[in-house]
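2024-03-11 09:14:02 DEBUG pipeline.ingest accepted 1 chain
2024-03-11 09:14:02 DEBUG pipeline.ingest length=338
2024-03-11 09:14:03 DEBUG pipeline.predict start
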Amino acid sequence: MKGKTTMDPKLLERYFLGSCASSDAYKVEEWLASSEKSEEDTALLSAIFDRIDKSNDALADKAYEKCASTLNLERAEKNRLPAGPLLPVITILAMAASFVFGLFLHREEPAGTPVEFTEIYAKRGSSEKVILPDGSTIVLKSGSSLIYPSEFRGDTRNVFLSGECYASVAKNPECPFIMSTGMMNVKVTGTEFNIKSFPEDSEAEVALVEGSVQLEGRSGSPTPLQSISLTPGNVVKVDRKNGETRISEFNINNYGPEEERGEAFVFLDRRFCDIVSELSRRLDVNIVIYDKTLGDKRFYSSFVNGESLEEMLATFNADGSMTIREDAGTIRITKRGI
């Protein structure tokens, strides 16, 4: 796509070096996440990184940290672009990440080859199993994206997630594994956990099955988040609007990769609006809730015997407070009596 760029080059450079105001940073992130980029936009990004002094460690560090915190796909997913393995925004951000990560790692291993990044997308109604370079296994859930390097270098193992996955992380106490999302980082050395962080959901969730994890707020995220430590059987909910957290317990025997638990659906203290979002993604159906009070209701539910969508919705409607009907290919849920 040809055309003039709409981004101020000086502002973009200040952004990657961490020296612009938060309001300007938001504008840049919106621009980075836009669905279309011109040839001039791509050239601008390349030129910005070319101007970063490769001999200056401090500048390289700042650019690395900023690019790492930006590469989360949160706003890109909100655009609801066609499901595909390489969305335009991912290409732009992966190019930026490749340059900055390569720059950062080049200082540590001058003779090393450039690090390449792979993006995996699990389309609606399916899942993808990914083996990372360190042997960690990621089960990427429906409607989710994962970006990871061709090899882990330095003193951390960083990957980037938009959506949900179940992670079985290879143990390496000397090199922590960090999974970054739009609002938080999950830091582990070797463990099993499930994380849900879809930008359209009202809450993000981390459930720990084995080992230990540390949750930290992502630098630059508009949602404040205190550092939280979890033990096996803990699940934490993080409100996407205000950062408030809720920690509860769950049965670890009912939680695991879809490959191990079939097509089980496990909802741990989930809001109904988020449950409906998950059902829509995993079953590739359209479901709409027309009453906020219904969407805010919370449920603990497990479906492990191949229950149909109709059976699951009937369970949530055990008190008869909902009217559920299908119309023109969409399941519509309203409050009874309306």
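2024-03-11 09:14:41 DEBUG pipeline.report The chain has three domains: 1-115, 117-260, 263-338.
2024-03-11 09:14:41 DEBUG pipeline.predict end
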